[in-house]
Amino acid sequence: MIELDNRTEKNYNFALLEQIADALSEGEIELIVTDNDEIAQINREFRGIDKATDVLSFPSDPFPGAPLGSIVISIDKVESVANELGHTPDEELALLFIHGMLHLMGMDHEVDSGEMRERESELIGTFNLPKSLIVRTLEE
């Protein structure tokens, strides 16, 4: 189940994100949809990186009944990447949500041996989405 905190004026296909969440976990997920300014501030505060990014994931400490964690997505990045790559903002939002969910589930493409890329690619096929950044990067 997704607890949505949409801090923008835009509306997207959040029902698709619910389907993705349900396919991956029974845990509750907080989804914050925001802009580049706020995600840059969060990135600076929690990661020490002073710039906007597309998606951030914050897993919760595990305990019985705990939510899986929080995902923060920049709608500015969603819109610009979707426009650049020729797919819809809903598709880009879903791609970033999948990426964030896999991080919440403990996967990390920066240190694994391709398992996260492989799982992301499978999910992209399952939900009939265009290739994500991580999958496109893998093919280059």
**How widely separated are the two ends?**
35 Å
Query: How are the strands of the largest sheet arranged?
Result: 1-2-4-3
What value does the Rg take, in angstroms?
14 Å
CATH superfamily: Metalloproteases ("zincins"), catalytic domain
Number of helices: 6
What general form does the structure show?
Answer: globular
- CATH architecture verdict: 3-Layer(aba) Sandwich
> In terms of structural class, how would the helical and strand content be classed?
alpha/beta
Q: Largest sheet, if any? A: 4 strands, mixed
- The averaged pLDDT comes out at 89
Name the poorly predicted regions: none
Tags for this model:
140 residues; alpha/beta; Collagenase (Catalytic Domain); four-stranded mixed sheet; 49% helix
Structure description:
- This protein is of the alpha/beta class.
- It has a single domain, classed as Collagenase (Catalytic Domain), CATH 3.40.390.30.
- Helices cover 49% and strands 16% of the residues.
- The protein is built from six helices and four strands.
- Strands 1-2-4-3 form a four-stranded mixed β-sheet, sandwiched between helices.
- It starts with a strand and ends with a helix.
